[in-house]
Design goal:
- By secondary structure, the protein is mainly alpha-helical.
- It folds into three domains: 27 residues; 158 residues, Cytochrome c-like domain (Cytochrome Bc1 Complex, Chain D, domain 2, Orthogonal Bundle), CATH 1.10.760; 189 residues, Cytochrome Bc1 Complex, Chain D, domain 2.
- The chain contains 13 helices and six strands.
- α5 packs across α7.
Length: 392
């Protein structure tokens, strides 16, 4: 004889099962929160995760290492001029810029006076941090992942990620790959907007607060830098209307061609055609005006003394060389026409014809003591965490 449960008994059993499952939820949620309880923490984990590259050897932090002011400290056959890819062989054509203070760059746009400003990457090809965070994973000479779905599949391997993306973004890693990928870029961008990337605690900042005192040489460099008469530095490397203001990012985020020569060593090492040139802003899909060829976004000077080599292609090793390179446009001295790193005349611009001569030829040539003073001032822009690197 069959035994049947009453509808009330069935309901009771179902309720008991639901309650049993529910009893486990608070613990599960608590465990998720102790791992990644904010978008910033999730983004930090993703930023440092080498599993998101094809061969599981490379993370965002590989080329933007926190201990080196978020630049790439790895040596290659061409020094640190460009970065090595996930395959251990590929070399890029551009130097990895610091990720510090990147959050202050405005969305890529063309201003009313016809100038391009802002964006991410040296050519502004992504409008914001979220856009930038999604590129390296899919770059064939960087992290080399074939598509977004493959990246999301790697994220899904980590149960903590699955929990965190569901909790923080309402995204299922087994669902829409585009939505999950976008959530990943939002998390990385959230991390990059933290104070770890923008502490504003350099000697310069402490000086403004009365917590540090400049040497006479540093003070001379400061005066020269912000001068409207004796240098052209602040024409591009000052954002705020008045020099010496707090939280100055030392870039106006515009684009200029300053006549940087081709890095022949990099071109040889990465197998690029000798005739190939980097057209900078003109490589941006949103730009089609040949007059923008060879222009690159003005970089921040914060931590510049510890983030060499310099220029978009890492062609100069030393900060003093960079200052001398600018001075060559105005100085009548014969030695100013010689690159101190090669002992030869400065090589011609990689992209001639679009140089920002109005800015480059502003101001007189500088004597050696003023060159040294500018370098000394630029060193004061080093955030406190990285000041020990100045002695290396």
């Amino acid at each position: 004889m069959r035994s049947y449960l009453s509808s009330a008994a069935i309901c009771a059993l179902m309720l008991g099962a639901v309650l049993a499952v529910a009893a486990q939820l608070p613990k599960a949620v608590a465990e998720r929160k102790t791992t990644f309880d904010s978008a910033e923490k999730l983004g930090e984990a993703v930023f440092n995760d080498t599993n998101l590259s094809l061969n599981r050897t490379m993370a965002c932090a590989t080329c933007h290492t926190p201990d080196f002011a978020f630049t790439d400290p790895r040596e290659t056959s061409v020094g640190r001029a460009v970065s090595l890819g996930d395959d251990g062989v590929s070399l890029g054509i551009r130097n990895a810029p610091t990720a510090m203070y990147a959050r202050f760059s405005p969305t890529f746009q063309k201003t009313e006076d016809g100038k391009y400003v802002g964006g991410q990457f040296l050519d502004g090809r992504r409008p914001d941090l979220e856009g930038q965070a999604g590129d390296p994973e899919l770059n064939p000479v960087e992290m080399e992942m074939p598509d977004k779905a493959t990246v999301v599949a790697r994220l899904k391997e980590n149960p903590d990620y699955a929990n965190a993306f569901a909790l923080l973004y309402g995204v299922d890693l087994t669902g829409d790959a585009d939505a999950a990928y976008h959530a990943m870029t939002e998390a990385v961008a959230a991390f990059e907007r933290t104070t770890e990337f923008a502490p504003f605690d350099s000697k310069y900042d402490r000086h403004l607060k009365g917590e540090a005192k400049f040497t006479d040489q540093e003070e001379l460099g400061r005066l020269l830098f912000f001068s409207q008469q004796f240098t052209n530095c602040n024409m591009c490397h000052q954002l705020q209307a008045q020099g010496g203001m707090a939280e100055e990012t030392f870039t106006n985020y515009q684009y200029h061609n300053i006549g940087v020569p081709k890095n022949e060593a990099v071109r040889t090492a990465n197998g690029s055609a000798p005739s190939l040139v980097d057209n900078g802003l003109l490589e941006n899909p949103a730009v089609d005006d040949p007059a923008e060829a060879g222009k690159f976004k003005v970089p921040t000077l914060r931590n510049v003394a510890v983030t060499g080599p310099y220029m978009h292609n890492g062609v100069f090793k030393n900060l003093r060389t960079v200052v001398l390179f600018y001075d060559k446009y105005n100085s009548k001295r014969a030695d100013r026409q010689i690159n101190p790193e090669t002992g030869k005349p400065w090589a011609p611009p990689e992209v001639p014809g679009t140089l920002s001569m109005t800015e480059l030829e502003h101001g007189p040539g500088l004597k050696d003591d003023r060159i040294d003073a500018l370098v000394a001032f630029l060193k004061t822009l080093t955030d406190k965490r990285y000041e020990p690197l100045l002695d290396q």
